[in-house]
């Protein structure tokens, strides 16, 4: 049996409520995954959903880069990154670096809620099949 899915969860400020709602819908599945997140996103997932999350620095302080480095080292299977396309971010180069690293390493990266449902739903199915096999 393969190991638990390793999922990175990241949301910009205006998308954090969406992230908490999304993660709440997949709470049971996510509780069986290895989760990592940027600092403020992770704190909300821990406090509001009781998930176990390894928290990196906050995004503007290098959290995206830390997650990118983990991904490049092969430690992340999927990224849910709810970006805010309407607000300029001081760490835009870091954000681009993380999304680029996903493309370089062919790691699924959901950048909006609809895509996140498709990716998490599919991962959940694959995981259930592996558990049953
Ligand atoms: O800025 C972020 C991603 O680019 C998210 O960081 P926080 O989860 O710490 O707010």
TrEMBL record:
Q: Which organism is it from?
A: Massilia jejuensis
Please list the residues that make up the active site. 64 (proton donor/acceptor)
Q: Name the enzyme group at the top EC level.
A: lyase
Q: What catalytic activity is recorded?
A: dihydroxyacetone phosphate = methylglyoxal + phosphate
Its recorded name reads Methylglyoxal synthase
Domain called MGS-like: residue spans:
1-133
Give its E.C. classification number.
Answer: 4.2.3.3
Regions crossing the membrane: none
Arranged from A to Z, the UniProt key words for this protein are: Lyase
Q: Name one GO molecular function term.
A: methylglyoxal synthase activity
Record family assignment: Belongs to the methylglyoxal synthase family.
Q: Which SUPFAM superfamilies match?
A: Methylglyoxal synthase-like (SSF52335)
Keyword Methyltransferase present in the record's keywords: the answer is no
Known role: Catalyzes the formation of methylglyoxal from dihydroxyacetone phosphate.
Which residues make up the binding site for substrate?
Answer: 12, 16, 38-41, 58-59, 91
Q: Which residues form a coiled coil?
A: none
| Signal peptide positions on this chain | none
Q: Which HAMAP family match?
A: Methylglyoxal_synth (MF_00549)
- Keyword flag GTP-binding: no
This protein's encoding gene: mgsA
Q: Where does the source fall among the domains of life?
A: Bacteria
Gene3D superfamilies, alphabetically?
Methylglyoxal synthase-like domain (3.40.50.1380)
């Amino acid at each position: 049996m393969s190991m638990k899915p390793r999922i990175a969860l990241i949301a910009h400020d205006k998308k954090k409520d969406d992230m908490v709602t999304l993660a709440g819908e997949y709470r049971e599945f996510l509780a069986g995954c290895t989760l990592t997140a940027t600092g403020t996103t992770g704190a909300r997932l821990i406090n509001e959903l009781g998930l176990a999350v390894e928290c990196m620095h906050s995004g503007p302080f290098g959290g995206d880069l830390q997650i990118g480095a983990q991904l490049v080292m092969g430690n992340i299977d999927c990224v849910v990154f709810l970006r805010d396309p309407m607000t300029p971010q001081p760490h835009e180069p870091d954000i681009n670096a993380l999304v680029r690293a996903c493309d370089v390493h062919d790691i699924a990266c959901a950048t909006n809620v609809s895509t996140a449902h498709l990716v998490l739903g599919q991962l959940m199915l694959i995981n259930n099949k592996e558990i049953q096999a």
